[in-house]
Specification:
This protein is an alpha+beta fold. It contains 7 helices and 5 strands; from the N terminus they run E-E-H-H-H-H-E-H-H-E-E-H. It folds into 2 domains: 38 residues; 77 residues, Orthogonal Bundle (Arc Repressor Mutant, subunit A), CATH 1.10.10. Strand 4 and strand 5 form a beta hairpin.
Length: 159
């Protein structure tokens, strides 16, 4: 057998990074050595918690609450309870189309309920959905803090 029969080109992923290598001799042994360089359970848990928190923080819910004028529209809905767009535009310094767009984004994010009655569309806060989403964010944040930021022991300085 010739030398090139023992030379193999391998492609494999280690910690999400694609590696390409020429291996000589026993390729199974080399692959086993690379497999032992995987992340620890703590690192895996931390990465999963970070990914979950990032997903929550990048959600439509928080994006919908990130715009100050959208918050003003939300406050107006809360003040009126159940209201249509003509009631919501009173006292606001935004165009009706802008208010309508903000209402659609808030409704898509699960913050508002949209109720169409004939030609009128009414909006109102969906408190249980909003509270549930805030609790989910808090749970993910608490999990992330517990994994990544262990409590620091306070040192008391006494003389």
């Amino acid at each position: 057998m010739h030398l090139y029969a023992y030379i193999k080109y391998h492609r494999f992923s280690v910690n999400g990074i694609l590696e390409k290598r020429w291996t000589y001799g026993n390729s199974v042994e080399i692959l086993m050595q690379m497999a032992t360089r995987t992340k620890s359970n703590f690192d895996k848990r931390r990465d999963l918690a970070i990914d979950a928190l990032n997903h929550v923080l990048d959600s439509k819910f928080l994006t919908a609450l990130a715009e100050p004028s959208r918050i003003e529209v939300l406050k107006q809905v809360i003040r009126h309870g159940k209201a249509d767009i003509s009631e919501l535009t009173e006292g606001m310094h935004l165009d009706r189309s802008v208010i309508s767009r903000h209402l659609g984004i808030l409704q898509e994010a699960g913050i508002l309920i949209r109720d169409k009655q004939g030609k009128h569309v009414y909006y109102q806060l969906d408190p249980s959905q909003a509270i549930q989403k805030f609790k989910m964010i808090l749970n993910h944040l608490e999990e992330m803090v517990a994994i990544c930021c262990p409590p620091v022991e306070s040192k008391s300085f006494t003389k």
